[in-house]
Amino acid sequence: MNLTFTPLPDEYAIVRLAHNATVPAWVGTSGLASVTRADDELSIVCKTDNVPKDEIADKGWAALRVDLLADLDEPGVVMAAITPISSAGLGVFVLSTHLRDYILVRFRELDHVKDVLEKAGHNVL
């Protein structure tokens, strides 16, 4: 499966809050944002510029949108996206929405990720 990726223009952060925290307003209303609550944490992905300086955040992530509009149960999309990156020894953080999948990689490794994806037959815009 060959995929096309569109890099998003902003830098992103991954923030971990207490499981019972209220979703903060600073998550924002533009760009990629994800709020996931689990029994042991509230995990937030949003633009780095939105995160208050006093929050502990893992910053420096770039987001790539998988441009394929796949059915929710379409097999192989995420695997095709992350396998070349993982095989190159690079970390990846995956998000999915109803329509699309997104992969986050370290901003400092973005050029390497683009090369790896293109060598695997994917297209990075």
Write the layout of secondary structure elements.
Blueprint: E1 4-17, E2 34-38, E3 41-47, E4 57-66, H1 77-87, E5 93-96, E6 101-106, H2 110-119, E7 123-124
Please give a structural write-up.
It is a single chain. This protein has 125 residues and is an alpha+beta fold. The chain has two helices and seven strands. Strands 1, 2, 3, 4, 5, 6 and 7 form a seven-stranded mixed β-sheet that branches. Strand 5 (93-96) and strand 6 (101-106) form a beta hairpin.
Give a quick precis of the structure:
The chain is globular. The model has no long low-confidence stretch (mean pLDDT 94). With 125 residues, the protein is α+β, with helices and mostly antiparallel strands.
CA-to-CA gap between the ends?
Answer: 17 Å
Average pLDDT level:
94
* Helix/strand structural class: alpha+beta
Alpha-carbon Rg, integer:
15 Å
- Name the quaternary structure: single chain
User: How many beta strands in the DSSP annotation?
Assistant: 7
- What's the shape? globular
What is the element string, with H for helices and E for strands? EEEEHEEHE
User: In percent, how much strand structure appears in the residues?
Assistant: 35-45%
Major β-sheet profile: 7 strands, mixed
Query: If helices are DSSP runs of H or I spanning 4 or more residues, what is the number of helices?
Result: 2
Low-pLDDT parts are none
Work out the helicity level.
10-25%
